[in-house]
Every structure is written in structure tokens, then in C-alpha cells.
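Next comes a concrete protein, fold included:
___
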Amino acid sequence: MTVPFKKMHGLGNDFVVIDARTRSPGLSEAAIRAIADRRRGVGFDQLFVLEPPRNGGDVFMRIYNADGSEVSSCGNGTRCVASLIMAEAGSQRAVVETRAGSLDCRAAEDGLVTVDMGPARLDWRDIPVAAPVDTLELPVAVDGLSSPVGVGVGNPHAVFFVEDAEAVALDRLGPVLEHHPFFPERANIEVVHLIAPDRLRMRVWERGVGITQACGTGACATAVAAARRGLAGRRVEVVLDGGSLFIEWTEDNRILMTGPVATSFTGELAEALVGGAA
């Protein structure tokens, strides 16, 4: 059995998209890891399986990381899937359902897509972290990184503000912080410095993936964290390795993310990959 797929990306944060609305491939964790292999499979940061909607939306998006773990939210991926659904329906709007909730999406200017990522989750239980604390300064410190801001955006984030994000050894510190005992569900790790009051530089270690070119929920968490710390306003440009996302944290606690989408290629997954062979 072969399975058709699309390879897409948002600022280099890359995805494999499988449409399972009429036929499910029933992928195992081993199969997902095999597809994620950038030498023997296709390669991706996240894999999306599109399923029939459950709560009145246009599609349900199931999300897997490259290590095979299932997660609840992916901002860049939501934009990509929304662009497919809008093109399919000839519409300027789409509702993408995820485990984190239903996300309203709309076409923006210049081919960009805006997603309402929902409310910022700021209570320690909603991120979650391991103890009742003020999430503006989490008691986490590893090798010069300390006191991150905790933000939930359908997944947990720890945002560290530093003098120079480029100078942080994220490849070494990212996995340590992802698995820090203060994060019971692990965490996405952002290191950020201020370029201007409306412009932030962010690098990211994504849980279950590693360093990626971009992370939509990470950019959202970074914008919220900067506003909470008084470093920036509520509308900012977040500059990632792969390009810029534009984030607005509204007064009613919604996070609006705007950015590009792209399709790299389409293809078919071979039976060996679908079956989980390496």
C-alpha cells in the first residue's frame, strides 16, 4: 500500500501532510519515525494526519513529532493545513480542529495566512509545570539560562530572555531543558533577545524534534512572554531562523499569528515506510 502525501513548510519548519479523511493509513510510532528519517524516509519536523471534523469545523488535524509522539498544537502547521482546506473549498476562511481546540484561520494579504491560536495559558496548571509558581519567572536554571517565562499555547513553552540568542548553545542545552523535571510534559525551549520594542529574535528547541527553523507556537509564546515582561508591546515581529512571523496578543487574550506557507512537493509513501521499516 502506498500513501499519498504533501511536503509543506512554514519558514522552513517542515511537515508531511497525509489526508486520511476517506482512508486511514493507521501509522504506528515506528512508521512515523521511519518517515521522519531525513536519509531513508522523507524527513519532517511534524507529520499531520487529516481526519473528518468532529466539532463543526472543516478538518481535524492530528499532529505527530519526528520521534513519533503525538502533540496537541502546531502553529506553522495549522497555517499550512488551513491553506490546503481554503484552496479546496475556494474559501478565505477555515476552521482547523486540533486536540488543543478549534482554530479559526483566514487568508491574509500577500499569500499569508492568519491563525487565531486561542488564549495564552498563563496559570501554572495550564502550561503545565510541576509546582504552583508565578509563571512570569519559573525557577528553572541550567548553565547560564535562568528564570524563563512559562506560556501554554496548546503545548508548554519556556521562554528565556538573553543578551544574544545566537550565542546560546541550544543544541546542548535544549534537550536538557526539554526534559527538566519542572516540565511534566516536557517543554519547547525558546531563547530570545530584543532587537527593538516591536521586533524579537528567537531560536527554538522543539520537544520531540530538536532545533527547527521556525515554531509558530514558540513565536506566540515569545510575544506573550515579552509583553508580560514589559519588553515589547502586543504586536511584534518574531525573527526566526527561517524568517519572520507576525504576532498580536489581543486585549481579550487571543493570540493571532500571521505568516507564509509553501508546498515543496507531493509524492507517495512506499509500503516499507508505511509499515515502519527503517
